[in-house]
Amino acid sequence: MAAANNPPDRKGLIVLSWVWVGAPLAYGLYELVLKARQLFTG
Amino acid sequence: MSPPVAPVGWSRWLVPPAALSVHLSIGQAYAWSVFKPPLESALHLSGTQSALPFQLAIVMLGLSAAFGGTLVERNGPRWAMTVALICFSSGFLLSALGAATEQYWLIVLGYGFVGGTGLGIGYISPVSTLIKWFPDRPGMATGIAIMGFGGGALIASPWSAQMLDSFGAGSSGIALAFLVHGLTYAVFMTLGVLLVRVPRTAAPQGDRPAVPEGVQVSARSAVRTPQFWCLWLVLCMNVTAGIGILEKAAPMITDFFAHTSAPVSASAAAGFVALLSAANMAGRLGWSSASDLIGRKNVYRLYLGVGALMYLLIALFGDDSKALFVLCALVILSFYGGGFATIPAYLKDLFGTYQVGAIHGRLLTAWSTAGVLGPLIVNWIADHQEKAGRQGASLYGLSFDIMIGLLVVGFIANELVRPVHPRHHVTAAKEVADGRREQPA
């Protein structure tokens, strides 16, 4: 009964979904930083 | 299709990644320029011709957001994300076929028309849902999604370039790159389709959406209010001012310091452009979140008032100091991004959550207008100044004066925004009556 009343724990799904979108965004930001550094070094 | 209602215990923190999976994908549009040189050499196209798919896509973005907004509100975010996924991915697949058979019209039709339709529907798909999930922080919630549109180009630009390096820049290499893009984006956007849910309180009653509490205005009524057109002007002026810098950022910084003791190299100019992209993205999340604390009207006062001041500083002292020039340009670009991301929350404040997605879609025609206006002003004036024998910073002086004027117009429009007159408000009883009139026995 208790299990039926408690909604499922969605922490794993939350982490997975943020990694799904965060990983490509981190790649894009890394490439951006590499390019932006040229303003100071180029 | 009825909107997917969240089960008990569904976390609202699952909705921003759903929105991001769509916005990070469709933001690829701003990386179209990666495909231009290989297309020009493989299919013997001019620069104007190779820009056609992107231009048509942006026109279709505005049109589909404006005309598809009501459908998005009626059918819900899952339907909208599915349509966006199908259109955006099949646009790439059609383009792959076009590149493989060297039929350029198929690329224009696929990427521009079909893919562009996906851009508009995808752009507005999560807006109203996010606002309903985060009534306490609508600016932050829509800021996350709209930041994703800026981030999409950051991902796609190096990724597409690496793909073309691996597959080759001939027509078969381009076709393969388009194919991989179409399939990858379809898989990536699926997360949004699967995860998105509307909150239980926003569940529909019968075949019509529920009318929430508080001030609510339908999309049809909203476009008849002066508030809508004031905000249209605010967005148009803010975007035009941002594009004024973004469009010619690299040649602008080179021209400004060409005759000084510290000229800017081509690679440093590319670094400047990248830094502007970062400011644009950061502004989307940062300023939009700040608007939840300081208020929407105040944050637009900042974008438009301080934005005009930044342009003035560049015009007066920009060529004296590289640091000042870069700093002012970064602030302007952060305001440009912030302007995009804060507008849905401003609309929610004025018109309620009832049809905010559809109203946002109609307002995006201001973006299409600014997309034409901004580059036109800066390029036309710079060309004329060059013909008149001017050089360096003086090539842009008149453009900056015009930008300041446009920002002042936007500032005044923002000051004219008042609460919507109660005669435009929607009530549950009025909606039921309208529903009966639309469904004759």
Commentary on this structure:
- The complex is a heterodimer of chains A (42) and B (441).
- Helix content of chain A is 81%, strand content 0%.
- Chain A has three helices and no strands.
- Chain A has helices spanning 2-5, 11-36, 38-41.
- Chain B has two domains: 12-202, Growth Hormone, Chain: A (Up-down Bundle); 219-424, Growth Hormone, Chain: A (Up-down Bundle), CATH 1.20.1250.
- Chain B contains 18 helices and no strands.
- The longest helix of chain B is centred in the middle third of the chain and has 30 residues, at 138-167.
- Residues 435-441 of chain B have low confidence and may be disordered.
Give the oligomer, counting copies of the same chain as homo and different chains as hetero.
heterodimer
- Distance between the terminal alpha carbons of chain A, to the nearest Å? 66 Å
The assigned CATH architecture of the largest domain in chain B is: Up-down Bundle
How much beta of chain B, percentage-wise? under 5%
Distance between the termini of chain B: 23 Å
- Kindly state the percentage of residues in helix of chain B: over 70%
Summarize the main sheet of chain B: none
